Amino acid sequence: MDIKSRASTTTFVVTIPRSKLSERPEEKIAEMGQWEPLAGHPGRYLLTVGPAAADPSQLLDRIRTLLGDETEVQPLLWDEKGEPKIPTGQVLVRFKRSPSDQELKAFAEPLGLAVEQRNDYIPSQVSFRPAKGAKGSVDELIERIREDDDLVQRVWPETLGTYRRE
User: Fold this and answer.
1) Pair 154, 93: CB distance under 8 Å
2) Which domain holds residue 77?
3) What superkingdom does the record give (predicted)?
4) Residue 92 in contact with residue 126, Cβ under 8 Å?
C-alpha cells in the first residue's frame, strides 16, 4: 500500500540554504504571491500564488530561476484527509528485498537521485534525494518510481507534519 498525496498547484514549499538567507529572497519573489515563513523551520517558507498554474513545472522552474539553483522548491502536498504535508525534498523507498549498493546505484541514477541513507532498522528502506542539478517535483518522481520499477514495495515522500490544537 502506498501513501497517496496530492500536489498543490497554488502553494509551494521553498527551502533556502542558510548561506542565501541574507539575500532577502522574499524581495525577489514578492510579485509572485504571498510569502510566509514556515513556523519552527528556519529557511522554509510557503509561497502561495494566484490562480492555479496550467503547468506547475514551469512555475517551479520560474521560482528556482528567481531564487537560484540551490533553492529547493516543491509543491505543498495534501494527504487523503486534506491535511497539508510539507515535503523535505527526499523520497523514501522500501524495496521488496534489501538491494546491494550496485543495485541502488542502478536504480537511482536514471531517476536523477542520490542515496541519502539506508534505514538502520529496515535494510530494504532507503532515503533518496535529488542529485545535484536534478529538477522536478517529488510527486512526479514518486509517480515515475511507481510506474517503472518492480523492485519497489512502497514509495512515499518524506514530509514534515503540521499540527493544530482543536
Assistant:
1) yes
2) 5-82
3) Bacteria
4) yes
If DSSP codes are grouped into helix, strand and coil, which group holds residue 34?
strand
Q: Answer with the one of 38, 57, 82 that is the final residue of a domain.
A: 82
Long-range CB pairs of 40-45 (<8 Å, 24+ gap) are 41/86, 41/160, 42/18, 43/15, 43/16, 43/17, 43/18, 44/13, 44/14, 44/15, 44/16, 44/86, 45/13, 45/14, 45/15, 45/16
Say whether both 46 and 91 belong to one domain.
no
CATH number at residue 74: 3.30.70.920
Q: Is residue 132 part of a domain?
A: yes
* pLDDT digits 0-9 by tens, 114-132: 999 999 999 999 999 888 7
Q: What is the pTM of this model?
A: 0.82
DSSP state, residue 143? H
The pLDDT value recorded for residue 27 is: 79
What's the rounded Cα separation, in Å, for the pair 47 and 37?
9
Q: How many domains does the chain have?
A: 2
Closest CA to 86 of 14, 32, 1: 14
Residue 139: CATH number of its domain: 3.30.70.80
